[in-house]
């Protein structure tokens, strides 16, 4: 789910950074030489991912003789802890953001809350040309400096139930490729009881990865933000069409009835997820959902495909959900932090994680340690990841606010059937004014 920084917290950040800037620059310059190899690292994961992260931390400590103060901070970027630590002059040296946190990290960099990494990357021997082109736009700000180091990335796919396809007379070897085909399949897969309630739904556009505000606008071809002109572009035809398409599902199936139907279901890591218990036949979700299915619903027969798109949209494309390293302003030991980050995003170190979750590496040259040969899911993951249409939308200082606005508009459209054109224009003007002031 998209994570949100409150606007009051953003204002707090801007004001506090203005006060904090002079003292922090002196503090940073006096402590950034790397005299001490110890540093503080915030990571966002619990469960198996936390176990894996602790293993690579221990391996690095043993190899390099470094002491890492690793702190589990769930939603650390979005719950105010990071901003408070920066304004208080005691930030962690390194933060790992999870998935959609990359947008917030980019926004923080634009507001002066992060340290540029170029000096430390150069000292560590980093070669920017070794990174896939699709991640390099995320790394830099318009000033040309590097503020973000990607670790790895997730992509979104269309998951569909093979047995439900066959029962509905659909060919599981020929999944929907266009929005029109998706709509027809959804209708064939939907079953309604005599009392008007749902027995099964073929597809719900706004659950799972479809809930992310950028998933469907991106598939429909929306730009949202023009990096060359620095203009917010929400009220454009692809965005309008994406909202109208979602509203079509709302008018056909009633969003309140859909909400009631899904209210008792579990999340992605639950056997009660509607795709796992056969209540929803198709859903858009990340590559990691394949492992969730293996754990919680091993008997579900499914396949994956690229997200369908309209003819004018982005074919076989995805919004990247990239895990990112970054260094907050005022960090005490940025060189040691960058050294670990570069160690931590190597294929040979990430292999165990990638081989579980089917995420993708950021490097052009792949390691033999990543073992997904002849795997249908991973073949599709690589297909959409390598598409020139895939990318990171809304790389702007108002990324977090834009996500809020798009989500609010979507809800107004699907629940109240409001006109998206007027709502989009209002949000576009509002965001542009905010951006210009920043």
TrEMBL record:
SUPFAM superfamilies referenced in this protein's UniProt entry, alphabetically: Periplasmic binding protein-like II
Gene3D superfamilies (UniProt xref): Periplasmic binding protein-like II
InterPro entries: Bact_solute-bd_prot1 (IPR050490), SBP (IPR006059)
UniProt superkingdom: Bacteria
Protein keywords: Signal, Sugar transport, Transport
Pfam families: SBP_bac_8
Signal peptide (from-to): 1-28
Name listed for the protein in its UniProt record: Multiple sugar transport system substrate-binding protein
Organism: Metabacillus malikii
